[in-house]
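ok so I'm stuck.
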Amino acid sequence: MSAKRIIALSIGSNVGDREANIKKAVSILEKDLHSRFKKSPVFECPPMYYREQDVFYNCCVSFESSLPALELHKITRSVEKKAGRKKSKIDKGPRVIDIDIIFIGSEIITEEPFTVPHMDMQNRMFVLKPLECIIPDFEHPAMQMTVRELIEECPDGTNLKKVKDFWKKKKGSNK
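replied:
not stuck anymore, here's the structure
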């Protein structure tokens, strides 16, 4: 088994109860990956590509693991299905849940079924801003820039709105 390294995931939802969708996915991920996550605040963001859809809730989580990259990919796809994601006919269209692998330590993977670091992360403020909250000094292994530096260079000028008290437990709730 390989050494533990920092893994970062981006999680988003814009269908149904976005808060419940993200909390469910994070809970399943923590259980399936046997990890406790460092969680960013959640930000409300307009859709980036296909604009005819509802706004997203987006966040990032990080954790340490020695899990092989392909196994991590299989688990994230499985969790998307468990959390209610269905195959969409619209590319970049509405999603109950979307989980992207952003970083797996200093690994660079360029073959199918996925690319790590995520190929568009440096162009997406909805990924960079949450990442900055949990791993601001993490260095992109290919670009050799920290998350903070990537934000300074990011062409995406989207103004993100922080969702207040997202991770706080509600009174009378175990969740």
